[in-house]
Structures are given as C-alpha cells and as structure tokens.
Amino acid sequence: MLFCNETDSGSCRDPKGCRLPTGAESREKSWKGAVTVARTDNGSPADGAVSDGDRWLRINWHKAVKIVSRLQTRIVKAVRAGDARRSRGLRRILANSRAARLMAVRRVTSNRGKRTAGVDGVRLKTPASRWQEAGKLNSPGYRPKPLRRIYIPRKNGKKRPLGIPAMRDRSEQAAELSALDPVAECTADMHSYGFRKKRSVHDAIEACYNALRLKGSAKWVLEADIKGCFDNISHRRMTDNVPTSKEKLRLWLKAGYMERGMFSPTETGTPQGGIISPTLANMALDGMEKLLRDKFGKTHKIHLVRYADDFIITGATKELLENEVKPLIAEFLKERGLGLSEEKTKISHIDDGFDFLGFNIRKYRGKLMTRPAKSAIASVKEKIREIVRANATAKTENLIGQLNPVIRGWANHFRHVVSSKIFGSIDHAIWEKTWRWAKRRHPDKSLPWIKSKYFQREGNRKWVFREKGRKFALFKMADVPIRRHVKIRADANPYDPEWEEYFRERETKSHKRNVKDKSGGLWVRQNGICPICHTILNEEEEWDIHHLIPKSEGGDDSMANLALVHISCHREYHRYGSVAGCLTVSYQCPSRMKGNFHVRFFGGEGAVMR
C-alpha cells in the first residue's frame, strides 16, 4: 500500500481528509510487507520472505516516478489557483509518500556525493541499507546530526567552507525538496537560472545577450556580489516564508557543524552541501525582479539576470544604477540578513565589458560578443599544465586519458559563444606542452624520431598526439563546432503539464545536435529512457554506457551493442544480476541485443524481452 492510495490514484478530493498512517504504523504494518511500487518477478506483491535487498532491487521505479510526478503536477495547479490549503495538503502527502521516500534515497545514493559520508561515517552502499533507510524517513523524533565541515579551494587561493550532512539528513531533505521544488518553480523570478531544473549557466548568458545586444539597449551594468550569501541568510526569514515543514527546516538550520572534533552552532545561513540548500537560498532571493519591475516598470532599460547569488542589473545610466538601483537592492538584501560586497560590486560600461559566470560580455564597435573570460582560459591552461607535469613518466595513453575529459568538457561548456580562435590558441598551447613532454622523455633521440613516435598524421593534420601504432589520440578543441544556445522560455515550468511537450522537444533537439557523440546518439535512440528502470535519463543522475554483449564475450563498441543507462542502474545490474532489472525493447532497441536477460513485467507497461 502507499500512504494514501486515493491521492496517488488521483481521486482524492480533499487531501486534508486523507488519513496518513503515523511513522510507527507505516513501519510496522506496511514497510515490512509488500508495497505498490515493489513487485516480484511475476508482478505479484512481494511477501515477508523477500529480503530487504531484493525489495530495493525490485522496486518499480517507473511507477514511483509516475506517482511523484502526478502529485507535483497537482501542487503546481493548486499554487497557480491560489489554493494555499490544498497546496499544503498535497505537499504533506507527497513528502510522506513511500514513492517520494524511495526516490529521495535513490537520489542521494546515485549522485556525485554518494561516496562522501557525514559525521556518522555512514554510506548507503548496499540495496538492503537503502531500503531500510527509506523506511526510517519521516519517523517521529527525527533529529538531524551536525554537519561535517570541510574546506574546498577557491580560484583566488582561499578556501570555502562546506558542510556535509549525514546520509539520513540528505534523504530527509530530498524528500521534502520533492514537495517544495514545484512551489519554488511557480514563485521564482523569471530570470533566475541557478540551481533550477532544466536551466543552466548558458541560459543566464543568453539572457544577458538578449538584454544588451541591440543598439538601443542599456549601456551600463551593475555587477553585484553578495557578501557570504549562504553563510548569512536570516533563519527567521526562511522559516517564515519557505512553505515546507517548519520544524524540520528549523532543525536543519540550527544543526551546527563539527570541525576537528569540536561542535559549533549555526545562528545564520543555510549549509552549503545540503540538497535543499540551493532551493532555500533561491527562495530567499526571489522577489528581486518584481521589486525592480514595480519601481521602474519598463523604463530606464532595467533588466535583472541572476544565477544563484551572482547577478547583474542593466540600466540606462550610471547614475541610475548608483543612486537608485543599488540602494534599493541593498535594502532588499538587508531584510534577509545579507549585504553587497563593496569591493566586488561595481558598475561597468558595456564597451569595457564585464565578466559573469566565467564568460566575458562586451561590445566591440557596437556589436555584442560573448567570449570565455581570461580567468577561465588561464584556469584550464593551468589545469592541463598540472596534469602534464604530474605524468612526466606515465604512458602516453594514460596522459591522453587524463587530458581528454578536461579538454572536451571545457570546449563543450564554451561552445555556445565566440570561442573558435580561443579553441585554436589553447590547442596550440597544449601542443607545446606535449611536445616538451615528449622531448624530455627522450633527450638522446633526434627530433624527427620523437615526432614520428608521438605525433602522427591524420588527414590534413600532421601533429596529432598519439603514440605510433595506437588508436587513442588527444582530443582537439577545434573539432568542437560553435552552436548558439537556445535560451529556455522564461516562464517555462518543468512541473506544469502544459510545458511537457516543450521540454521534450527542447531536450530531443539538444541531443540530436550532439548525435555524433555516443551518449547523444543513444539518448535519441532510446527516447531519453533508461532501459533498466524505465525512468527518464535527466541531469539529476549520472549516466553510463552499457555493453549488451560484454567485451569479454566478443562484444564491441559499436552503437548497436550499446545502451545508455543510469550509472546506479548499471552498477546494480552488474553487481546483483538480473534481479536488478532487465533491458527492454520498448525504446526500439536494435535486434543485436542478446543474452540471458531476466524477464520482468512492469504492470503491463512496455514490452520486455528474454
């Protein structure tokens, strides 16, 4: 059973009237037995004899996602209708539902922070521990543990504090976030792009381009920097204005942190490192755009573009930004316990340009151009230099294996702006480093000998870094085509069914443009569906490429022998065998898919194969 079958089936008229079992009742009566989203191989509910690990591996994730998505859609409709009571009831039902709790545990055990433990040292490595953790969520008497304080380096050489919650606390936050995020999307500033679903840095840069590209556009830009945003946000402001469990939110904000065995309390700020923290910070800063619109309307060329705590505001004159806009923003932030950094906040003319999110935006003779910032170029060159220096005695293929992800990742990030010449200059700098690396390894050999060993000819290129007789070559940034990024619609809401077709077409077009890449081609072929768990391949989880016929059994790397899956599904499939899922043919998989795959039915939804 689910916590509220009527609500999950969409027939509950009054969410407040739906009785939710207490934590004790749910653990005693339903969690030990079968649940709607957990099934055995023949589709019937699992009995008490099934182990906790098998229950986790047999979860019907497709149905769990469907239940959560349906409730999130209803929350959006309630918020849009202004029905606060109904919205509150639906959020409570979703946060307490079994589907949301299972999805929360899956999220924290499949993202990049899954290997990082909190102060208790607990990491949910096994399916049994994940199932048991999901059963503990939302239990009475829950108290979060202090954060584990660590420090990560900044670009300026300083270190930034980061608080790591325990896995239990991360799971609790993820469950609450599934109910809070639809509300946050409905109330967010239209031109806020940081830590929001389906939005990215490139959308923020395109918004800057649209606000400044015309001859009659604003000439002046206020580059604002909030001093210690995450560390200084008022707790009272968040508990009074964020529509989530007040008790849990207060406990998370006041949890404190442990550093070198010493406990320190937290009186202000939201912990950097918590899953829910970016959404809390976004909701605290929302309203800035409305404030500017109410004050200035459509006059004075005032435009706001915000990415988390970094934002710029355009204006017609420097005096307007200095004397009216800046004091207004300072007062807005003061109400939230924040303030502008006087050293980093400045006003620039568009002809002089400004740096924002690693990009430089500037007009050259009246034409606006966006390029990689000098700091970003210097950073990638330094990173490549460090890799080459650290691998002075390594094999050529090992060096290439470490350089290629850095080169390809940086090029893909800046492929949407004016980067062609910069890509060429970085490629030349990389050639110089690899040439010196090769000469240092063979001081007694002639230059032609070194060139013939480490640099091969491919087509019209004579200096491709690849050892003679090997196939693994160094990637070139110049091979990445420049394509303009299409900005997301400002009012698009990923939880609103009215926008479902828009987001599907947008994502499909994006992957089709990258069809030459293996991941992009596989995503298009599979219609963005993981063939193991039948859920969407989105940016919330990492992906991996699965070989249908293993290489050890004669398989190859051709597209016909590959499938794109979630990295967590891939790991469980290989570790626990067919009980972890099967590969289906519902996404038009090639006929080459063979093997003794376990047959598993998803309630009649989608074809399966042997």
Structural class: alpha+beta
**β-strand amount:** 5-15%
Helix content: 40-55%
Give the quaternary arrangement of the chains. single chain
Give the biggest beta sheet. 4 strands, mixed
In angstroms, what separates the terminal alpha carbons? Answer: 29 Å
* Whole-angstrom Rg: 27 Å
Taking strands numbered 1, 2, ... along the chain, how are they ordered across the largest sheet? 2-1-4-5
Record field, number of beta strands:
15
Runs in which pLDDT lies below 50 for 5 or more consecutive residues are: 1-40, 42-48, 584-610
Form type: globular
Number of helices: 22
What value does the average pLDDT take? 84
Offer a quick outline of the entry.
This protein has helices at 5-8, 23-31, 52-57, 61-80, 84-96, 98-108, 127-136, 167-187, 201-212, 229-232, 235-241, 246-253, 277-285, 288-296, 318-334, 374-390, 396-413, 420-441, 447-454, 500-513, 518-525, 567-576; strands spanning 147-153, 159-164, 220-225, 257-259, 262-264, 303-307, 310-315, 346-349, 354-356, 359-364, 367-372, 455-458, 461-465, 543-547, 562-566. The protein is of the alpha+beta class.
